[in-house]
Amino acid sequence: MTNLALAFEELGNPSQPPLLIVHGFFASSRNWRLMAEKLAAHFHVYVLDMRNHGASPQHPQMDYPVMTADVLAFLDRHGLDCVSLIGHSMGGKIAMWFALHYPHRIDRLVVADIAPVSYQHSFDNTINALASLPLADISNRKQAEIWLAEGIPDLSYRQFLLQNLVLQEGSYRWRVNLDIFQQTAANIVAFPDTYGLLPFYGHALFIAGADSGYVNAEDLEELFPTAQLEYLADAGHWLHVQQPAAFYQRVMGFLLG
Q1: Is-contact 136 240, C-beta < 8 A?
Q2: Which of 29, 135, 201, 243 would bridge with 47, disulfide CB 3.0–4.6 Å?
């Protein structure tokens, strides 16, 4: 297993308690910047770019054990013995896997709109749509957005994905490696086998979007039996973007409680 040195953004005063934020699939640290800036008033915040995302190195292996190992190596590299950890979607699964294996390194755990289960959806349509974009013919991001509309009809999701389209030396390219994403997407949808793992009995909060459907209470009972589960009204999977004030208030109440 090869541990990668992850890129990250660091905010807040080093004298404050450490807090790590781990993003979802196709995202990066930049998607959490506004929330991280608010949290930095009370915490020393590290917002990671996971492998194959953002400015972090690329590697053909991408699953929850190796990404968790990257997070452990990050903590060790920065001398962080115990941290609070926020993870959304893919990042939430990383956070859960980390907590199940290294509970002594976790102060408080926040998991946003994901459960420790294998889901049935697929990223094939999304990845194929992005791969079909004729990069050589694109001269601006608006053209790319229009081109992708048929394959990715949800405008907000399309704009989110297009944050991975970057202009370099006069030409557009994808910052993420779509081949790696295609080959490893099934690992992201799944959750590793938990046979033999002890439950996590530490402080844990699961926040789900009321309109999402990704998290049910019974999904948490075996592995996170003492966790709190709350639903944010008028929010789907992107709850921290759709209801940022409510998300921040609930997270802060838990982290400082």
Answers
A1: no
A2: 29
- The structure's pTM equals 0.97
Model confidence pLDDT, tens digit, residues 70-90: 999 999 999 999 999 999 999
- What kind and span of H or E run contains 19? strand 18-22
Structure tokens of 241? 């973007």
Residues 237 and 141 in one domain: no
The residue whose two tokens read 């994901």 is: 114
| N- to C-terminal Cα separation, the chain | 37
- Do 157 and 234 fall into the same domain? no
Active site residues: 89, 179, 237
CB atoms within 10 A of CB 186: 13
Phi, psi of 213 (to 5 degrees): 85, 10
The 3-state DSSP class for residue 18 equals strand
Per the CB < 8 A criterion, the answer to whether 10 and 45 are in contact is yes
90 close to 112: Cβ distance less than 8 angstroms = no
Q: 148: domain range? A: 124-176
List helix spans (H) across the chain: 33-39, 64-77, 90-101, 124-131, 141-148, 155-161, 178-189, 239-242, 244-255
Are residue 92 and residue 211 in the same domain, yes or no?
Answer: yes
Report the alpha-carbon distance of residue 67 to residue 38 in Å, rounded.
Answer: 26
Using CA atoms of 48, 51, 57, 58 in order, give the dihedral in degrees to the nearest 10.
Answer: -160
